[in-house]
Structure formats: structure tokens, C-alpha cells
Amino acid sequence: SDMSIVQLPLPNSNDFPFRYTTILNNITYVFYFTWNTRSSSWYMSIHLVDETPLLSNIKLVPNLDLLANFPDSRKPLGALILLHNGEDVKKPPKVTFENIATEYTLNFVN
User: Fold this and answer.
1) Side by side, which strands form the sheet with 41-48?
2) Tens of pLDDT along 62-88?
3) Alpha helices for the chain (secondary structure H)
4) Does 1 have pLDDT greater than 70?
5) Please, which residues have CB within 8 angstroms of residue 88's CB and are 6 or more apart in sequence?
6) In angstroms, rounded to a whole number, what is the distance separating the alpha carbons of residues 81 and 107?
7) DSSP 41
8) Residues 6+ apart with CB under 8 A from 60
9) Long-range contacts for 66-70 (Cβ within 8 Å, ≥24 apart)?
10) What is the pLDDT of residues 4-30, one digit of tens each?
11) Cα–Cα separations (whole angstroms), residue 35 to 17, 18, 19, 22, 70
């Protein structure tokens, strides 16, 4: 049972709103990404393939398991972590509208 890491697409600021389907642990999920101008932050929502919302408006912040605070048992079983590509992973720059797709990776670890 080796750990596996899947890199998931992040929103390119030219392609908006950003959504895709992906299979994690043999379950198809729909990921949505939206930019909130007021809070200057990216948010992610995850639905089942029939569009049942599982997790809504999770703020994309680096170095935290973005799924940790959600008890829904239908969520992807694993950790979802936004990581900066730079040298100093512990002190990443602020996530912006422009830099999320170029400077960060979204990693599903299980």
C-alpha cells in the first residue's frame, strides 16, 4: 500500500470558471474553482458526478489538507494539499489570481 500522489489541474486565469471531472479512488468527482474578488482568494467546490455537492467553497490555502475539516464520508479518501513549487515550501507567496496555476500544484495524497 504505497502512498500515491495525483496532481490535479489548477485554474488557469484565462479559463474561467474552471471545472473538470477526475477519478479518485475509483469515484468520479467534479471539481469547480472560482475566484472571489472581495477576499482575493480562490475557492474550490467538489461535487459527485450527478452534481450532488459534497464540499463547497473551500478556500485554497497552501500546506493544509483542504479536505480535513469536512466529515462527509463520500469525499475523496485522502489529503488534498496545495503546494508551492519554490525552494521554501514552508513560506509560500500569497496565492493570487495569476500565480495559482504557474507556481502551485494541487496534490491528492492517499
Assistant:
1) 18-24, 27-36, 41-48, 53-59
2) 999 999 998 889 999 999 999 999 877
3) 100-103
4) no
5) none
6) 5
7) E
8) 33, 41, 42, 43, 44, 66, 82, 95, 100, 106
9) none
10) 999 999 998 666 679 999 999 999 999
11) 8, 10, 12, 21, 21
